[in-house]
Amino acid sequence: MINADLTIVGAGYAGINALNAASKYLPRGSKVVVVDRRRQEWGGMWNDNTLAYGFVRLHQPKDQFTAGEREWFVGSDSDGGGDKRKEWDYLPDRREVLDHFGSVVASVVEETGIELTVLWGHAAMNATTVADADAVERKVHLTARKLSSPSSDVLIVSDRLIQAAGFDVRPKKSQQPPIIVMGSGKTAMDTILALHLLLPNRNGPSSDRLHCIAGGGTWFWNRAVLSSPRGPRLVVSALDMYDGTNAREVYTRFSKPGSDNLFHSAVPDPF
Hints:
- 24% of the residues lie in helices and 23% in strands.
- By secondary structure, it is of the alpha/beta class.
- Helix 1 runs parallel beside helix 2 (94-112).
């Protein structure tokens, strides 16, 4: 049995944010236990070879993808000419994201003095709230099961529990109906790629199960422009121009190369 002040389920983006936020309210030296199914490092799906493919990058400026107030420290000025990785709109790659997550956790532990225990390769099975005999104090009892040894359960008793685990998108092997993905943005593309890699016989009949409904076309926000100082002005201009019938005109106007390319598409004729 492990006694703790706080238990967090999940060591991904949500779990790291939970740890960072909770550490500001926990007394110095508090005991925190984190439970995660993966056997690698902080970062959740960014550790998954099927969901975080090798060439993946953030699709938003890095300062918008961190834990609370934690700053990014990537790149260097050792070459004397500056490093583009330090620019506000730089999109970190997978390794840089994982390194950042690890540095956030290390900083939290160093600054707050919390006693952190991570149960890698464990699944959170069930949690119950148990009161003492006088019903004055309540504790959360969580069972963590070691995936490599299902008979090995660990009971964690803590004052608080934060559920910060993500979703498992892997389909059941017995599932046969068509899989329909609504939308054609980055989330849809990531979902389609993940399912394509995870489905059996991905080059055979199973690949025919995937369908995408793309609506009026496959357009993406140009996030570098959207997040820039001129982004809000361009969005307002696009909305002012759109009258409900001229989508093609709006997309064409705001997808031209230059400073106003608010949208872009990999499809030659998205319409």
